[in-house]
TrEMBL record:
Native organism taxonomy: Bacteria, Pseudomonadati, Pseudomonadota, Betaproteobacteria, Burkholderiales
Coiled-coil zones: none
Protein known as: GntR family transcriptional regulator
Domain HTH gntR-type: 2-70
Domain of life from the UniProt record: Bacteria
UniProt KW keywords: DNA-binding, Transcription, Transcription regulation
Keyword Ligase: no
Entry annotated with the keyword Transcription regulation: yes
GO MF terms, alphabetically ordered: DNA binding; DNA-binding transcription factor activity
Biological process (GO), any one: negative regulation of DNA-templated transcription
Length: 241
């Protein structure tokens, strides 16, 4: 069952697509949408964020909510400000597991994901796919899981579509306290280029994430490669008073 904000976002996307709200037209205010659909304003805001991330609307002070396009943009855009935004990414995409196996962290890998050389990890190789563009995967991701956590959820990985860190919290009680991440420009690695339907060494974005639990320990690390023009990473910076 979809979260209520996703259902509302789908309704708004359909209304924009069929012309109920034409390009350039104003959408009802958050308060009016809340009343019209019988949901909280927080639900409305989350739904509008999803629609905005697809490039369909803009939201500005005084100008209100305006329709900017009738069809979603080609690239997947993720607005990131907290762990909940990662969860939204999981809701909007599908996880296609390619392989699961145990590895020993080499010196190079240990340095990249912040763990001890020689430590054992469960590695999950997978794709993140936008269901609307299944032939052009959003990214390839190598997931490295603490072996205890990995053993607890291994059988569910090909069935459950949610975030892996949420599965770990549910089964092991290890909640994400913070996510540390590094972003850099790379070339698409040859070993995953074919699966990503991208040319080897073509432009890509690499995001390395470290999932830290309540004790300050890394229990999951991910290395994701996003081919150019398939993903936009949106970050909002607010001035502190």
């Amino acid at each position: 069952m979809k979260p209520r904000y996703v259902e509302l976002a789908d309704q708004l996307i359909e209304a924009i697509g069929n012309g109920t709200f034409a390009i350039g037209a104003a959408l009802p205010s958050e308060m009016d949408l809340s009343t019209q659909y019988g949901v909280s304003r927080a639900t409305v805001r989350s739904a509008l964020q999803k629609v905005q991330d697809l490039g369909l609307i803009s939201r500005r002070k005084r100008a209100g909510i305006r329709v900017e396009a009738s069809k979603p943009r080609l690239a997947f855009e993720q607005s990131m400000s907290n762990v909940e935004d990662l969860m939204q990414f999981a809701v909007l995409t599908e996880r296609h597991v390619q392989s699961i196996g145990e590895i020993s962290a080499s010196p190079a890998l240990a340095a990249r994901i912040g763990v001890e050389t020689g430590s054992r990890w469960l590695r999950i190789e997978m794709l993140r796919v936008d269901p609307a563009k299944a032939d052009r995967p959003i990214c390839w991701t190598d997931v490295y899981l603490d072996p205890v956590a990995g053993a607890a959820i291994r059988r569910e990985l090909r069935k459950n579509t949610g975030l892996i860190c949420e599965m770990v919290e549910e089964r092991c009680g290890r909640a994400v306290q913070e996510v540390r991440q590094e972003i850099r420009a790379v070339g698409v690695p040859e070993r995953v280029a074919g699966t990503l339907a991208a040319a080897p060494d073509s432009h890509a974005l690499e995001i390395v994430r470290h999932y830290v639990d309540q004790r300050g320990l890394v229990f999951e690390a991910t290395i994701s490669v996003f081919p150019a023009e398939r993903f936009t990473y949106a970050l909002r910076l607010a001035r502190q008073d």
